[in-house]
Write a structure and sequence with these properties.
This protein is of the alpha+beta class and 368 residues long. The protein folds into two domains: 242 residues, Collagenase (Catalytic Domain) (3-Layer(aba) Sandwich); 100 residues, Jelly Rolls (Sandwich). The strands form five sheets. Strands 3-2-4-6-5 form a five-stranded mixed β-sheet. Helix 1 crosses helix 3 and helix 4 crosses helix 5. It is globular, with a radius of gyration of 22 Å.
Length: 368
């Protein structure tokens, strides 16, 4: 029988509670709550968009080589959503130093990371700033599990804190929480559960985005461990991939530069990057520009231009569409704001009529 899965265990003296993201109430029958995920102030990478990642182990061990390849494959998924890149070239001093084999203080099943730029301090001393010690004998450690853990720990490495440790979290751990977690993670002590799950994060918060139960950064919450702010039982499973709100939080912390204007003037279709502003798109009268994007899960979406419906018209087509884009409350911006289901969506925007020669506009489509 496979051993239980493990979670990241950052001991306070080894770097404290680390990175995390989001949680949103998935019960559509209840009112959606605008809850928040956070990045730690003072721990974000500033002055560079590239973080150098080195490895503490030689890859002559086949299992070590496998995990190193997994890190190079999965960690850059964060870069798809924000302006931070991981350099695995091995040139220069490492900002993040990853250990993948058992060592003193990090046996099989230990996954932990320093928080943000604290990684550089530890790596600079020649000590690992991150441990990813997967046990090859544990059948749970398949590709999906390794991806989950790597994404989670690299979330820590770029500065995000655990959502369940936020002082203003919208959930309350019950008196039965320690027992519930011991049943799920029998190797964890009550002290570890208190430190890693129940005790609130004490540092300052820099960025916040909607709380999301699909986040890669939140620990699972078993039955009986927590209730939400209505008193209802609150549970979270094992999340395996970055959620839309993970991605939007990353882009808040490390904003991608504006996408270049299309410049064509004749419409067409553009694959849109969420949370990256488009500047100077131009569409001729009688034409429209289509912007495609995909939501992997239900998300709060805002579509906004800098032109009004006196000049532009727009529609949104998707699983529950189409909808007509309307004016903002100040009557100056074509805008749409809604909680949309997951799936493929297309925003179509163009001049209000063919008599207008062309319209140049800026556009943002943000999740959260």
């Amino acid at each position: 029988m496979p051993e239980p899965k493990s979670m990241c265990g950052n001991h306070p003296i080894y770097g404290g509670p680390v990175a995390e993201s989001t949680l949103m109430d998935a019960a559509a029958s209840r009112m959606k709550r605008e809850l928040r995920a956070a990045a730690a102030a003072g721990k974000l990478w500033r002055g560079t968009t590239t973080v150098k990642v080195g490895f503490f182990n030689r890859n002559s061990d086949p299992w070590a080589a496998q995990i190193i390849n997994d890190v190079k494959r999965y960690a850059p998924e964060w870069s798809d959503s924000c302006d931070i890149k991981f350099d695995f070239s091995g040139v220069g001093t490492s900002d993040v130093l990853v250990n993948v084999l058992p060592r003193p203080g990090a046996d099989f099943g230990v996954y932990q990371s320093q928080l943000g730029t604290d990684s550089r301090n530890r790596a600079g001393s020649g000590q690992p700033s991150m441990d990813l010690v997967f046990d090859r004998a544990n059948a749970n450690n398949d590709d999906a599990e390794r991806r989950r853990v790597i994404l989670h720990e690299f979330g820590h490495a770029i500065g995000f804190i655990h959502e369940h440790t936020r002082a203003n979290k919208p959930i309350t751990f019950t008196p039965n929480a320690i027992r519930a977690y011991q049943l799920m993670l029998p190797s964890w002590t009550p002290q570890q559960i208190m430190e890693q799950i129940i005790t609130p994060f004490q540092g300052a918060i820099a960025f916040q985005s909607p709380f999301d139960g699909n986040s890669i950064m939140i620990y699972p919450i078993p039955r009986g461990a927590a209730v939400d702010d209505t008193g209802a039982e609150f549970t979270v499973g094992w999340n395996l991939v970055l959620s839309d709100h993970d991605k939007s939080t990353a882009n808040l912390a490390y904003p991608k530069p504006p996408q270049p204007p299309n410049g064509g003037g004749n419409g067409g279709t553009i694959d849109l990057t969420l949370n990256a502003n488009r500047v100077g798109d131009k569409v001729a009268g009688g034409k429209s520009q289509r912007y495609q994007f995909t939501l992997s899960s239900p998300s709060l979406i805002t579509i906004k231009t800098d032109k009004s419906t006196a000049v532009l018209k727009g529609s949104l087509i998707g699983p529950n569409g189409p909808w007509t884009l309307s004016n903002d409350s100040d009557l100056t911006n074509l805008r749409y704001f809604a909680f949309l289901p997951g799936g493929a969506w297309t925003a179509e925007i163009g001049p209000i009529n063919a008599s207008i020669s062309s319209v140049t506009f800026n556009l943002s489509v943000t999740a959260g």
